[in-house]
Design brief:
The protein is of the alpha+beta class. The protein contains 3 helices and 13 strands. It has helices at about 1-20, 25-40, 45-65; strands at about 45, 65-70, 70-75, 90, 95, 100-105, 110-120, 125-130, 130, 135-140, 150-155, 160-170, 175-185.
């Protein structure tokens, strides 16, 4: 299995060197397939339960307030946090040549479910230390519901804990995106 993995990675690396850093339709299809695989790992979110948080977050995704953050490179300690509520974070991942990845910190204010909304299809992974937090659900967001956001994931978090939000991307267009974190069950007033 190890040799098969190494051969696959070597072939992938060789293909990237031969084609340069541009993306192809095959890479776009592979990114969508990865996003679909990630979706299948968690249940689909019930639209009736996510409608309000999507509507509220869409207002912030379109109107702000906005804050730009640069994620820490994978394998390093992230110091940048995304704790401000009702804030659309413009996240930039480090990397290049179709290999981007980074992480930021989110500290849960309350023990409850949190909604993580992204302007890209590829999801995120949430870690409590080295343990990955299981998601309650994941879904795509239709363009009719919000043109600025494309996906939502909901996870139960504990108050006062620092969680590492980890992101990967294989295309430069997915290395910069919006991230909003809102309490999923909270009553959202429209401002």
């Amino acid at each position: 299995m190890k040799n098969l993995l190494e051969t696959g990675l070597s072939t992938c690396a060789l293909a990237m060197l031969m084609t340069g850093c541009g993306t192809t339709e095959a890479q776009d299809a592979a990114a969508m397939e990865l996003a679909t695989e990630q979706q299948e790992l968690a249940a689909w979110c019930d639209p009736a339960e996510t409608e309000e948080v999507i509507e509220h977050s869409c207002l912030h995704a379109e109107s702000g307030p906005f804050q730009a953050v640069s994620a820490a490179a994978l394998g390093t300690v992230p110091f940048v946090d995304v704790n401000l509520p009702h804030t659309a974070y413009n996240v930039t991942l480090p990397g290049g040549c179709d290999q981007y990845g980074g992480s930021v910190i989110f500290t849960a204010e309350e023990s409850t479910e949190y909604a993580f909304l992204l302007s890209r299809y590829q999801g995120l992974r949430i870690f409590d230390g080295t343990t990955e937090v299981g998601l309650e659900c994941r879904s795509y967001i239709s363009a009719s519901a919000c043109g600025a956001l494309k996906s939502i994931a909901i996870a139960p978090l504990e108050a006062g804990k620092d969680y590492r939000l980890e992101f990967h991307a294989s295309r430069a267009s997915d290395a910069q995106f919006l991230l909003l974190v809102e309490e999923a069950a909270h009553e959202h007033e429209h401002e």
